[in-house]
Write a structure and sequence with these properties.
This protein has 102 residues and is of the alpha+beta class. It has one domain. Helix content is 38%, strand content 19%. It contains 5 helices and 4 strands, in the order αββαβαβαα. The chain has a 4-stranded mixed sheet with strand order 3-2-1-4. It starts with a helix and ends in a 17-residue tail after the last helix.
Length: 102
Amino acid sequence: MMDQINSLSKQGNSACRLDYNCQSGQTAASVEDSSDEEDTAKGESVVNVPLDDIIKGKYSLVYAHPEAFLRTTNGTAILSAFKSDRTISCIAVDDAHMILER
C-alpha cells in the first residue's frame, strides 16, 4: 500500500492507509536525509496521521482492509462519520492480496 501512497503523494494527491485494527493511520512524507537506508533509497518516510484527520476528510484516498472497516469499533465509527458528513464519495473493495509484477 505504501508504494501506491508514495506515488499518489508525489502527484499531489492526499492518501493514507489505516492499520488492520483501524487504530492508526499512516501516510508518506518526503525526506531530505534519513539514516534508514530503505527510506533514503525511496526518498520517502512513513508518518503517522491522527484518525481525526482521516474522519474529517483530509485524505482523498484511504486504503484499508475491508475487515478493518466492518469488524472493528473504530472502523464502523469511521464509516459512519464518512456517511453522516458526506466526506466519502466511493468505496472500492479490492480483495486481491497480492499482484505479481513481471
